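Q: Hi! First time doing this. I have a protein sequence and I read that you can turn it into a structure. Is that right? Here it is:
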Amino acid sequence: MAGLLSGMGAALSDTLYAVVAGFSLTFVIDFISAHEIMFQVVGAVVVLALGIHIFFKNPVSDLRRNRVRGNTHFQDIVSSFLVTVSNPLTVFVFLAVFTSSGVAISLQQPYHAFFVILGISTGAFIWWFFLSGIVSLFRHKINLRILWWINKTAGAIIVLFVLVTVIVVIHKAL
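A: Yes, that's right. Below is the predicted 3D structure, encoded as structure tokens:
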């Protein structure tokens, strides 16, 4: 339950940053449209850096840092929200993903941003629900080696996403 609630805090933070990024985008669509290629390149670099960071992250040091402290459910939500919201890079990641994937360019009406944000929020909550459920089922079987592989897989998927995005952008430019 603590994992699900911590995930909910992180999902709330992601939603907040998606709101900031999404509704800010509605005010600057003309600027983004004028500099679409530059934003796509910068966005791809930011997401690529995130994927590489996750790929090389060490789960042992993370576990040592985050030993179980016996928090209440409210503390689980608030602490994970504060940890994730204190990372302003998140809003830039959302901006990068929105622009590098072309989502920002297709937001013709401000209400379109609402649906993108609703999708991000719903996706984040569903992701944390399933992730915490799977971890709960298999937590006794998950060791540091498996955590290491999870980091490698997640990082590789993010890098693959960037590569596909770059191919699509190059194909569009030709």
